[in-house]
Amino acid sequence: MLIACANVANLLLARALARQKEIAVRSALGASRLRIVRQLLTESVLLAALGGGLGLLLARWGVSALVKLNPASVPRIDEISIDGRVLVFTIGISLLTGLLFGVIPALQASRPNLPQSLKEVNTNLTISGRRFQLRQVLVVIEIALTLIVLVCAGLVINSFVRLLRSNPGLNPNQVLTAQFSLSPTKYSDQIQTAAFFEQLMGKVTTIPGVQAAGASSIVPLSGRATDDPFSIEGRPLDMNRVTVAGHQNITPDFFRALGIPLVQGRDFTSADVAGAPPVAIINETMARTYWPPGKENAQNPIGQRITLGAPRAPGDWMTIVGIVRDIPHRGLDSQPKPDWYWPQSQLPNRSMTLFVRTSLDPAHLAAVIRQEVRAIDPSQPIAGFGTMNEVIASSIAPRRFSMLLLAIFAATALLLAATGVYGVMAYTAAQRTREIGIRMALGAQGSVVIRLILKQGLTLILTGLAAGIAGALAAARAMSSLLYGVSATDPATFASISLTLLTIALLACYLPARRAAKVDPMVTLKLE
Fold first, then answer.
1. Domain boundaries, position 474
2. In this model, does residue 124 exceed pLDDT 50?
3. What average pLDDT does this structure show over 288-307?
4. Whether 353 and 419 share a structural domain
5. Among 17, 68, 119, 227, which one has the highest count of C-beta atoms within 10 angstroms of its own C-beta?
């Protein structure tokens, strides 16, 4: 918005300068300064209203395009539309823009130099100092604001690319998921709940093409995790340093189905059922956090006993039998946290998600799995099928959508800045037509004229880049929590964005400079 307003102010300044003679004639005929300002502001507001109306039409198309993107991070996206409040805001901001950024050009244009302006031809070789300086300041502001937006967008895009390349700790390819939620009335008994999933695992693993199948009460990378206090046998409770970790129910072969490596110890087996000694498996982060290696009297987590919540009866303690690789349960961009697992057969959960690794197309297994579920319980529904890759895509949907919006904003800002630089340099070249004609008549080459205008534009661009880098550093630090795997002051991003903006801005300067270099000095001097 600020970049667009700077462009509007620049264009209005150029328009006012071009109408100097007209305004001088009006003043000479008795028009007051207030009347001239009112006329110019009326024209600015009308232009703003027309622009706002056109923008509103474009916004209707933009909203439709946004809805078609269907980002998972935006709830009730189908209900998004331009309502009355948005309409009033659009009209109001358009009129306000016309007023605010039309005032300065109007005030400057309403004070013409009558003897100078009423001449048939302006013999000045240069533009009015204060007016041109104001236009230069606006260009510097545009460049600075554009660099800030581009750097922020570049950091987010860089962060998203690194996120896509990150190791999720599991192999999501060729994995089908299916969600189950057993009826609390029909499966009120833990034995019935455990029996259902044991039968389900037994039938699914016999399906041709299935390599491994397991179930869990939490879907990895879904953003959901249950973090609760737990106790370690032999350690006194310390309310100032409560031991906390995420926990979930799993069936045997869950780790094999998702390709999660076992680092130490063993996996759960069919022998880990109700009545057998309670067991648990922890992740690497939990092992490092609560049994740190390298310290004096360091303990091996394998064989230690833990329990959920406060210490309980002796039979409630679970023996740690294995350590597995970390996986980011809370999202692909989350840092690993302490997590532990217990067998579904020992502590059954009615809500579980099935994971099936297959050598075939996962979608082809859906119908077969439905048949197997009906064979166990004809009335049991399946919440929905999907793939593990879809789960990962859903977990990064908010980042993808934010990246897309920032990229659109950055491209728009770049276009506006290039237009602003081109407009100023084109007007500058036009104002210096007589000077350029005289130079060329005295023997100056076209390359000299091009360098002359490029040097003037380069000064503005470099000043804007310097101011923009300072602003971008502050903006990037403010959004550092949104970044993944990239520093808020990433030199590569800052350098590449600055170089890109410099190149495009110089191109915007070169086009009017090249046109000015083709001026015919005889035609120019005849106008005098």
1. 130-172+398-528
2. no
3. 85
4. no
5. 17
